[in-house]
């Protein structure tokens, strides 16, 4: 008979090997980073452009340019662009976040040349046709009107605005911002930002010399360097912790978002703070989940996260809870934060979280694409691979005393912005 | 190509092993052959509620999640109308922990009243979060009973109504476990940095002694052929009018499934697809419009859904959808367009091989359908289809008397 009540022996993750990006310089000086791994004959090519020249009077400029890159060039219509990509079974995406605008191609290697030609076209020759812009504005406004019916979406807008004000991180775009979008503004932003001097290329998958030389052919030549740009530079201060209540009388659930400005990845406390965040709300067995979902049944899910942007880090807790238990849920959140500040995390729980984080880190290195994502995290924070060595070391060695100290310094419920959308 | 070894334990548990030493991780996927279609019509949402209870402790192990997290593992699960699937990702060196946990909850649950009470609440909050507190969130609660009159696909996995979940008792939980959760109704797939011999040894050690249980024999009422067009109108506090249209289509194992799937790609996959180009971009009748298939084991649905541009009459928008459907019924799809959607199928299959978890889930899914090796011949099943096959299938599916239409209108 086997003994089913005793857990099998296990090992903590010891060996973590990252596939490091190799750096190349294209003929025109564009930085190319290559993650070569995997057995499938495919690649992902990412062209990343920094968001620049933030201008409050044109808040949707960078986003709209990115979204509309595939809507027409001087040689091809939106349909022709889509057909050329789809025909080869490839996927062409535009991705926009607070710091970067990206164009990403996924393709089988055998179709790289045919599909890269399309990418070259859209990043160097987009024309933003007037008619497409009108369609874009209309569809975006329709999407916004649906999103504004979602409590969770509103809570994110109010929270970002509270933390980051009228910067690209915080501005809540409205219908009127779409209405005033002008083609000329898009063209001028495109001409400014989509240039070699603002571009980083990351290629991952099964990458050989042939692939690299094809990329150089397309993006290392015949592409005007561009003029000097103004990086988006913002600084933020922790506010005094206001409550923002948006009442929605018909709500069955209330969206809660609570948090504050924190540190970025290049701050020495960041890795240890990740451990603290994991304990609080960073995994399924976290304290917030154990208490508010698994003990009280107030919600389907609750979590917390520490996010590092180029100009700021921030910490937040988010959930959607039954409208009638909203106040109780907020009280429990406060209680859990305060517990971290007043009581040491017990050795058993801390050991579990450490093992979980190491396993999760290892599991996050599944394929060439995930190794490339790890690289982007450090590269855009101005860090090198030593960061991960330090991260792993910190996860293994951080003590309960250090975490309590961090909790007292960084996690003060009173200074958190508290957003509630629904009923309380 | 996803290679694997297959074995069946004496209690009927099927074990598939996929070795992949490009990763230090392992995946353990357990598929139970039970879904929302197997529920009592008066106790719907139960398969999914039960999935939650599988994490509430088993006979010998009080907590499921904690010991797994302690060895660096993560897990989750999902329930569909057809299956319930549980999966673990963990460092391969700690594989045995997954066997210990999964085998104990297949052996027996703890059947804790507290767990049932809490998970009833959690699932009710999930019901609200996904279906009731979202614009258009309840559409499938309306659409399924419109499209299906006898088959249990007429309810969603979350259940028909909150009360079915609120009324679940521990006796229901025990009966459901006894009926569906045993080796004879399960498929175990282990993938990653694992050796087949070692996996089979562990499988025998941890699962081998679990009683076979009774093989659940499914006998569900078949959906009679629809003979009349169905329509329903809902008015709600939503910002935009929307149209949802379903057509009955072949079951997953029927060759007609592949034809229908390609039809949905031609109509709606990517920015060069017909519905997007014609109705969103050119005629500007919709701000978004999609076509897809449910891919269910029993005969499924071909779905077309879209949000109308403000000011466009629903009749006009609907007529425009029909014009596109008539076109594909009457004219052969050009060769280049057919090649395009087939190429997309091919590349999607190759990209899916990048994910260990996807590979393990796919093996389990195809094993349940009858033969895991069919995973590796999927691309060919699409490749052989001709423009004539597509046209014939379009004529079978896109008939008014085979359609159910839901107009979801803004107040």
Structure commentary:
The complex is a heterodimer of chains A (424) and B (411). Chain A is an alpha+beta fold and 424 residues long. Chain A folds into two domains: 198 residues, 2-Layer Sandwich (Cytochrome Bc1 Complex, Chain A, domain 1); 180 residues, Cytochrome Bc1 Complex, Chain A, domain 1 (2-Layer Sandwich), CATH 3.30.830.10. Chain A has 15 helices and eleven strands. In chain A, helix 11 crosses helix 15. Chain A starts with 21 loop residues before the first strand and ends with a strand. The model of chain A has no long low-confidence stretch (mean pLDDT 96). By secondary structure, chain B is α+β, with helices and mostly antiparallel strands. In chain B, 42% of the residues lie in helices and 19% in strands. In chain B, the strands form two sheets. A six-stranded mixed sheet of chain B has the order 1-2-6-3-5-4, sandwiched between helices. Chain B has a five-stranded mixed sheet with strand order 7-11-8-10-9, with helices on both faces. In chain B, strand 9 and strand 10 form a beta hairpin. In chain B, helix 9 packs across helix 15 and helix 11 crosses helix 15. In chain B, 51% of the residues are buried. The chains are: A alpha+beta (424), B alpha+beta (411). At the A-B interface, helix 2, strand 5, helix 4, helix 10 and strand 10 of A face helix 2, strand 5, helix 3, helix 4 and helix 10 of B.
> How much strand of chain A?
15-25%
Number of domains of chain A: 2
Report the strand count of chain B. 11
Oligomeric category = heterodimer
Count of helix runs of chain A: 15
Interface with most residues? A-B, 77 and 83 residues
Overall average pLDDT of chain A: 96
Brief overview, please?
The complex is a heterodimer of chains A (424) and B (411). Chain A contains 15 helices and eleven strands.
């Amino acid at each position: 008979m086997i003994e089913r009540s005793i857990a099998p022996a296990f090992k903590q993750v010891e060996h973590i090997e990252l596939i490091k990006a190799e750096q190349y310089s294209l003929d025109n000086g564009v930085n190319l980073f290559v993650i070569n791994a995997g057995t499938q004959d495919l690649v992902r090519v990412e062209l990343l452009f920094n968001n620049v020249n933030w201008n409050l009077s044109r808040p949707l400029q960078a986003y709209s340019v990115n979204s509309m890159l595939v809507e027409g060039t001087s040689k091809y219509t939106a349909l022709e662009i889509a057909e050329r990509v789809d025909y080869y079974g490839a996927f062409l995406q535009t991705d926009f976040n607070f710091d970067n605008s990206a164009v990403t191609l996924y393709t089988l290697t055998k179709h790289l040349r045919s599909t890269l030609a399309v990418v070259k076209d859209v990043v160097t020759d987009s024309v933003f046709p007037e008619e497409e812009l009108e369609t874009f504005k209309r569809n975006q406004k329709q999407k916004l009107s649906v999103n504004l019916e979602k409590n969770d979406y509103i809570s994110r807008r109010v929270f970002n605005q509270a933390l980051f004000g009228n910067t690209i991180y915080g501005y809540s775009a409205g219908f009127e911002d779409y209405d005033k979008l002008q083609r000329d503004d898009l063209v001028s932003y495109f001409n400014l930002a989509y240039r070699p001097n603002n571009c980083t290329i990351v290629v991952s998958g099964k990458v050989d010399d042939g692939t690299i030389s094809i990329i150089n052919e397309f993006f290392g030549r015949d592409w005007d360097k561009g003029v000097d740009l103004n990086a988006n530079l913002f600084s933020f201060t922790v506010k005094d912790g206001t409550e923002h209540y948006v009442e929605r009388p018909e709500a069955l659930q209330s969206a809660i978002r609570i948090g504050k400005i924190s540190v970025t990845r290049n701050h020495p406390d960041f890795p240890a703070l990740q451990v603290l965040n994991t304990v609080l709300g960073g995994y399924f067995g976290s304290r917030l989940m154990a208490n508010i979902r698994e003990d009280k049944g107030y919600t389907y899910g609750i979590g917390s996260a520490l996010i590092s942007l180029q100009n700021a880090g921030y910490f937040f807790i988010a959930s959607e809870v039954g409208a009638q238990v909203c106040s109780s849920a907020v009280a429990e959140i406060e209680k859990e934060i305060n517990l971290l500040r007043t009581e040491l995390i017990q050795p058993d729980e801390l050991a579990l979280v450490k093992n979980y984080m190491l396993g999760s880190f290892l599991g996050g290195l599944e394929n060439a694409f995930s190794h490339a994502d790890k690289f982007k995290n450090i590269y855009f924070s101005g860090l090198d691979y030593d960061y991960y060595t330090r991260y792993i070391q910190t996860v293994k060695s951080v003590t309960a005393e250090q975490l309590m100290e961090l909790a007292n310094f960084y996690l003060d419920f009173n200074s958190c912005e508290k957003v509630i959308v629904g009923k309380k | 190509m996803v290679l694997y070894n297959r074995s069946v334990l004496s209690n009927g548990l099927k074990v598939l092993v996929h070795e992949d030493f490009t990763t230090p991780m392992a995946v353990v996927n357990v598929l139970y052959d039970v879904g929302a279609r197997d529920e009592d019509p008066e106790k719907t949402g139960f398969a999914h509620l039960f999935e939650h209870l599988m994490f509430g402790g088993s006979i010998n192990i009080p907590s499921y999640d904690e010991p797994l997290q302690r060895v660096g593992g993560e897990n989750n699960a999902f329930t569909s109308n057809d299956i319930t699937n549980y999966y673990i990702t963990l460092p391969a060196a700690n594989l045995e922990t997954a066997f210990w946990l999964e085998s104990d909850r297949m052996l027996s649950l703890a059947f804790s009243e507290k767990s049932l009470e809490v998970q009833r609440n959690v699932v009710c909050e999930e019901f609200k979060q996904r279906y009731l507190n979202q614009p258009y969130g309840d559409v499938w609660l309306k659409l399924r009973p419109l499209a299906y009159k006898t088959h249990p696909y007429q309810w969603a996995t979350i259940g028909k109504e909150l009360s079915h979940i609120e009324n679940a008792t521990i006796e229901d939980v025990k009966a459901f476990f006894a009926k569906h959760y045993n080796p004879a109704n399960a498929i175990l797939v282990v993938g990653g940095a694992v050796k087949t011999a070692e996996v089979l040894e562990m499988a025998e050690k941890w699962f081998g002694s679990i009683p076979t249980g009774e093989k659940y024999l499914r006998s569900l009422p078949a959906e009679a052929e629809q003979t009349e067009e169905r329509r329903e109108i809902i008015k709600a506090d939503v910002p935009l009018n929307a149209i949802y249209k379903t057509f009955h289509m072949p079951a997953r194992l029927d060759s007609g499934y592949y034809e229908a799937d390609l039809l949905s790609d031609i109509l709606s996959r990517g920015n060069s697809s017909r519905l997007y180009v014609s109705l969103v971009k050119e005629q500007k009748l919709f701000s978004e419009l999609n076509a897809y298939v449910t891919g269910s084991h029993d005969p499924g649905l071909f779905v077309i859904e879209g949000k109308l541009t403000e000011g466009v009459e629903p009749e006009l928008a609907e007529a425009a959808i029909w014009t596109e459907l008539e076109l594909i019924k009457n004219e052969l799809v050009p060769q280049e367009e057919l090649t395009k959607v087939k190429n997309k199928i091919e590349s999607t299959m190759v990209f899916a091989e990048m994910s260990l978890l996807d590979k393990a889930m796919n093996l389990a899914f195809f094993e349940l359908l009858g033969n895991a090796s069919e995973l590796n011949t999927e691309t060919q099943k699409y490749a052989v289809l001709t423009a004539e096959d597509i046209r014939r299938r379009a004529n079978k599916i896109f008939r008014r008397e085979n359609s159910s239409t839901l107009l979801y209108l803004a107040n």
